[in-house]
Amino acid sequence: MAAVLPERAGREFPYEKRHFESLRALAREEAGIELAEHKRELVYGRVCRRLRELRLDSFDAYLALVTPKGSAERPNFVNCITTNVTAFFREGHHFTFLHDEAVPRLMKARQPTRRLRIWSAACSTGQEPYSIAITMARAMESVSYPWDWKVLATDIDSNVVARAQTGVYGANEIPGYETAEMRRWFQPAGGETNNGPARVQVNDALRKALYFRVLNLFHQWPMQGQMDVIFCRNVVIYFSKEDRRALFDRFAQIMAPDGYLFIGHSESMLDGTDQFEPVGRTIYRLKSS
Ligand SMILES: C[S@@+](CC[C@H](N)C(=O)[O-])C[C@H]1O[C@@H](n2cnc3c(N)ncnc32)[C@H](O)[C@@H]1O
Question: N or C: which end of the chain has fewer CB within 10 A?
């Protein structure tokens, strides 16, 4: 008899181990995401929502729809299994380092071109690339000549990229929003509280410095030219060791020799490539050859 998970016999849709295994294989194939065994219930809850939206009556019907290569449902499946937790100025020491050390050093080296390119490689709903942009704008305030700096922000999940592009957030999500210094990067976007607008939008000038794209890190990368800074934080934890290593090696190829790579606080290069050396807490540069 098929193994219906006993602890959830009264489920809305029957969910067997084989269903989870098929979805797991699909997540790996489509996004490089390794779903650990303990994610079985989480996957059930998330995929159930798709079943209801599509008015399907079983996981078998869903698998028949999503499994064929090139199925239009695959991107929706990816959107529902990604974990998009993020925050403005998350892991604050990265932004301090970017402002105080990386940007001044890169600006000295890039005087001839006055051009800097930064990539937020798993940008989720945008808080990370906008935090980078605010940091860049602050770092640029003391220079008298305009610099050509841009932030490319990409993610595999088309829903989060669409949200990120709006640049609209709850004011209460923005640390320090009560200060005039932080408020100047945002404009009111609706709602009222005792302390000001409930919703705010990243200001137009800053938004012009960002480009958003849907991009699977395991597919071809469209950008030409080297990246001066790459933020790839809190995403490789979902990948296999081999995929992590391959990804870091690709970053090494696309990075300027004096560029910086920022990874998440719970991530490590130790089991990955040997092409980088640490220059700060979860901050790396290419090893000089
Ligand atoms: C936990 S969020 C991290 C967001 C942000 N970097 C931060 O640290 O706050 C992980 C993001 O990685 C994205 N992601 C997962 N697999 C991906 C892949 N293969 N290619 C690109 N993005 C991916 C998810 O969609 C999700 O938005």
Answer: N
Polymer length of the chain: 289
Q: Which atom of ligand 1 is nearest to the CA of 127?
A: 9
Identify whether the C-beta of residue 233 lies closer than 8 Å to the C-beta of residue 267. yes
Total structural domains within the chain: 2
Q: Is 46 a catalytic residue?
A: yes
Q: Tell me whether residue 1 is in a domain.
A: no
CATH of the domain at 67: 1.10.155.10
Same structural domain for residues 153 and 262?
A: yes
**DSSP three-state, residue 138:** helix
Q: Is residue 73 assigned to a domain? A: yes
Residues with CB under 6 A from ligand 1: 31-33, 82-86, 90, 122, 124, 128, 155-157, 160, 216-218, 233-235, 238, 264
What span, in angstroms and rounded, lies between the C-alpha atoms of 21 and 26?
Answer: 9
For the chain (289 residues), the mean pLDDT of every run of 10, in chain order, is: 55 95 98 97 97 97 97 97 97 98 97 97 98 97 92 98 98 96 96 91 97 98 94 97 94 96 89 86 91
Residue 213 and residue 101 share a domain:
yes
Domain that holds residue 30: 6-81
Please write down the long-range contacts of 198-205, taking CB distance under 8 Å and 24 or more positions apart: 198/170, 198/171, 198/172, 199/168, 199/169, 199/170, 199/171, 200/168, 200/169, 200/170, 200/171, 200/174, 201/166, 201/167, 201/168, 201/169, 202/130, 202/133, 202/167, 202/169
Whole-prediction pTM: 0.95
Q: Best substitution site from 76, 90, 155, 239 to test ligand 1's pocket, by max atoms within 8 Å of Cβ?
A: 155
